[in-house]
Write a structure and sequence with these properties.
Elements lengths: L1 E8 L12 E5 L4 E5 L6 H8 L5 E7 L14 E4 L11 H12 L3 H10 L15 H13 L5 E5 L7 H16 L3 E6 L2 H7 L2 E6 L2 E7 H8 E8 L3 H15 L4 E4 L4 E5 L3 H10 L6 E8 L54 H10 L3 H23 L4 H6 L9 H19 L14 H34 L10 H26 L2 H23 L10 H9 L5 H15 L1 H27 L1
Parallel strand pairs: 3-7, 3-8, 5-6, 6-7
Antiparallel strand pairs: 1-2, 1-4, 8-9, 10-12, 10-13, 11-12
Helix pairs in contact: 2-3, 2-10, 6-7, 10-14, 11-13, 11-14, 13-14, 13-15, 13-16, 14-15, 15-16, 15-19, 16-19
Length: 594
């Protein structure tokens, strides 16, 4: 059961609200159509139900508002507009990534691919899918979590009649299985053919809430569709002859050169056009919507849905679950919703590996690192660590660090540019699990890239200049730790920068700000006279901890302090701390607003 009570959108710039005091219900086992012309507030109503739009009112999904549902993807399947996703990602990769977000196994993805006829498009890129396949992919994404309710915004827009009929059969099968289906449409005939109940909107307000039989009787009338270049002349002639003969004929001017004539037939209209010398391009009988003035509820409000006060506010979990599932326990309503993927680590890995940008950045960083190492090694005047890192003094960062920062920036930047988690959850989620998954995957990729880059640079130098000239330094563990720390820090700066400022470019700017802006500033500060030092900190900590202090910790702590004591290490640490605080604060602010 889906109950919308008093939905009202927030007015903007002095205009009336797009949706004003909308109250209706969609029952399980039924298909409900939200009908209205363009601008009537259909899409805004769906966004209000999903808490994606600021406003008043509340929507209950089997007795619980959306923000009290632990896993929204398992309760509500959503299709608003086009399917979000990177155009270079394949259909299979997109579904598997969203399956991880919904907690759905791979078997569920394969089942939907077969059931929705998408097997031939599994390897196709999202940007190359035909319109029909896009709509079916959108339905597959909505059905991943096996939800009880489906909320769809014009699911058959732009499709052929055969494809539209196929999708409506799918929605009917979902309803017959005990689910709730609510979809929007602007075609009254579509609502009469495919829905069990029709909620009509006019100007953002509810005009009628009717059973489909009553809707067809009161809203659909036989009419004659006429197309003529002299529409006004023919309308005047038809109205004049109808008044003279005292016949109830109504002529409604449509867009362009079209007329809809109610209460007449093709023969009478054709004879009138012939007598008045009016050229007619089209003359056909059809069933269409009644004029707006005849809408039940457009005047005195007859036929409108029950007021909000007559609809009970069900207790949490009181409505029995359909489709063979039990209703949620009352205590479940107190849980906060899981607005991040149920399997965030799997989601992040599939997000990273599903686009061609990842291998391109990795290969580009490795090639640039090898080229820089060969150029630096050829001169023989650069220190070995800088040669192995491929880090010329002219560059703010080595190529591997830039690549790690770029991949980190993509991890959040692509969420905003090609949103994959917004359909039923609002803005890109800022939950701790998703952030930790992105940081962990970014760190792993940075470590892998740094290790391979140094190995490739060392191999290239020995190949071109001989192994006897390139020897491994004895302090390679501490050098390696500093190198990997730099790469991981750059990757994390990219992740947090893109997450705070909602753009991949901002993540890259956060990475470059460390060597360009913060390191020179800290060098100026640290070059002054030092009165106090933390050199004895490990010994003081060992005295404080006593026998619990392992001897190996001294070496690790000294190494960490030496890294943090460097201007670059201190600048990177301060940058990461500031970005993390900004990320937390922006997340709290967003939660407070919504």
């Amino acid at each position: 059961m889906l109950q919308a009570i008093g939905l009202t959108s927030t007015p903007r710039r002095g205009r009336p609200p797009a949706v004003d005091d909308l109250t209706f219900e969609a029952r399980p086992g039924h298909v409900t159509a939200l009908l209205g012309p363009p601008g009537s507030g259909r899409t805004t109503a769906l966004r209000l139900m999903l808490e994606l739009e600021p406003g008043r009112g509340i929507t209950y999904f089997r007795g619980r508002p959306l923000h009290r549902i632990a896993h929204p993807a398992r309760e509500v399947g959503v299709l608003l507009g086009d399917v979000p996703g990177h155009p270079s990602r394949t259909l299979r990769s997109q579904l598997r990534m969203l399956g991880a977000a919904a907690g759905a196994p791979v078997a569920r993805v394969e089942e939907l691919v077969r059931a929705l006829g998408l097997a031939e498009f599994e390897g196709s890129r999202l940007g190359t899918l035909p319109r029909g396949a896009e709509r079916r992919l959108g339905l597959a994404c909505a059905l991943l979590g096996d939800p009880h309710a489906l909320l769809l915004d014009e699911p058959t827009a732009g499709l052929s009649p055969a494809e539209s009929a196929w999708i409506h059969r799918l929605l009917r099968a979902h309803a017959e299985g005990g689910g709730t289906v609510l979809y929007t449409t602007g075609d009254p005939r579509d609502a009469a053919r495919n829905a069990d109940r029709v909620v009509s909107l006019v100007g953002g307000r509810q005009a009628a809430d009717q059973d489909v039989t009553e809707f067809a009787r009161t809203r659909l009338r036989p009419r004659v569709a006429v197309r003529t270049p002299h529409a006004a002349r023919l309308a005047a002639a038809l109205t004049q002859e109808a008044r003279a003969a005292r016949r109830p004929v109504e002529v409604v001017a449509e867009s362009g050169n079209r007329l809809s004539v109610y209460g007449s037939d093709c023969a009478a209209i054709g004879e009138t056009a012939f007598r008045h010398g009016v050229l007619v391009h089209r003359l056909t009988e059809e069933t269409g919507p009644a004029p707006t003035a005849e809408l039940p509820g457009a005047g005195a409000g007859a036929g409108a849905g029950p007021p909000a006060s007559t609809l009970p506010r069900p207790a949490s979990g009181a409505t029995p679950a359909s489709r063979g599932r039990d209703a949620p326990a009352p205590g479940a309503a107190a849980r906060r919703p899981a607005r991040s993927p149920l399997r965030p680590l799997r989601y992040e890995v599939r997000r990273l590996t599903g686009v061609p940008a990842t291998p391109l950045v990795l290969v580009g960083a490795l090639v640039a690192s090898v080229v820089c190492a060969l150029l630096l090694g050829r001169g023989g005047r650069t220190d070995l660590p800088a040669v192995l890192a491929g880090w010329p003094a002219l560059f703010p960062l080595p190529p591997a660090a830039l690549g790690a920062g770029l991949l980190g920036a993509f991890s959040f930047g692509e969420e905003y540019r090609y949103p994959a988690l917004t359909s039923g959850r609002g803005a890109v989620p800022r939950r701790l699990g998703l952030l930790l998954a992105k940081l962990a995957v970014a760190a792993a990729v940075a470590v892998l890239l740094g290790t391979v880059a140094v190995a490739a640079d060392l191999g290239a130098l020995r190949l071109f200049f001989g192994g006897e000239l390139i020897s491994v330094p004895p302090n390679w563990p501490s050098m390696g730790a500093r190198w990997l720390g730099l790469l991981v820090g750059c990757a994390w700066a990219g992740v947090l920068g893109a997450g705070v400022f909602r753009a991949a470019a901002a993540g890259v700017a956060a990475v470059l700000a460390v060597p360009v802006a913060f390191v020179p500033l800290l060098q100026t500060v640290l070059t002054g006279p030092s009165v106090r030092s933390v050199a004895g900190l490990p010994a003081r900590l060992r005295e404080f901890a006593g026998p619990l202090w392992p001897p190996a910790v001294d070496r690790w702590l000294k190494g960490a302090l030496s890294v943090l004591g460097q201007p670059s290490g201190m600048a990177l640490s301060l940058t990461l701390s500031g970005l993390l605080c900004a990320y937390v604060l922006t997340g709290l602010r967003r939660n407070a607003r919504w």
